[in-house]
Amino acid sequence: MLTMKNFIILSLAAVSTGAFAQSANSFQAVTFEGLTATEPLSNNFNISLSSGAKVTLNGVKYTIKDVFGVFRFTKTGTITSAASSLAPNSWKFDGVQNKNTNTIGWTNNNKSNSLSPGESFDFKLGSFAATGAVLTGYHVRVNGNLAGGGDTFFAYGPTVPAPVPEPATIAVLGLGAAALLRRKKAAK
C-alpha cells in the first residue's frame, strides 16, 4: 500500500535520480545564434557561447543567459562512450543512459560554473562511437521568462552565423552601383 510517507520518499528518489533522464525527445528544435559546438562524432569537442548569443524558440528570440548542460544524442541510432577524462569546472559526466535514450551528457547545477557568454569549454571522452545522426543538445537558461513559463529548457538545433559581408563582396556591390550610376549619366 502506498502511504503518504512512501509517496514522498519515492518522489524524492525520482527527483534526485532524474537529473539526467533526458532522451532525444526531451530536446526542442531551435535556432541558435552565437552558440557553437565542434564536430559531434569526435572524442574531443568544444562548446562556445558568444556575447549576446540568442536562441529562437517557437518564433520568439531570447538572449541566452548561460548553458548548464551539454548532451550528444541520436534519434535514429545508438551511442556508446567511455568515461569522460575532462569536463569543465564542476561539471559531471553522466555517461550513456540506457539504450532507449541514446544520450550522453554533462550537467552542472552550480550556476557560478555554467558556460556564460564569452566563454568556451572543452570536453573529452575516453571513447565515443555512434550510429545514426548525432546531435548536440543543451540545457539553456535565458534572460526573462519563456512563453510557457520558467527560464530553462532543453534544445538542439543549427547555429545561424551572423551575416558579415566579406570586403570583396562589398567592393563588387560598390563597383556595380558605380557602373549603374555611370551608365545612367551616359544615357542622359
What class would the helix/strand composition place it in?
A: alpha+beta
- Count of domain modules: 1
Helix percent reads 10-25%
Largest sheet: 10 strands, mixed
Report mean pLDDT, rounded to a whole number.
Answer: 74
Task: Write down the overall geometry.
Answer: elongated
The rounded distance between the terminal residues' Cα atoms is 96 Å
Uncertain segments are 1-20
Beta-strand percentage range: 35-45%
- Radius of gyration over C-alpha positions, nearest whole angstrom: 22 Å
Task: Detail the topology: elements first, then pairings.
Blueprint: H1 4-17, E1 28-29, E2 31-37, E3 44-57, E4 60-74, E5 79-81, E6 84-86, E7 92-93, E8 103-107, E9 119-125, E10 128-130, E11 134-142, E12 152-156, H2 167-187
Parallel strand pairs: 1-12
Antiparallel strand pairs: 2-3, 3-4, 3-9, 4-8, 4-11, 5-10, 6-9, 7-8, 11-12
In short:
This protein is α+β, with helices and mostly antiparallel strands and 188 residues long. The chain is built from 2 helices and 12 strands.
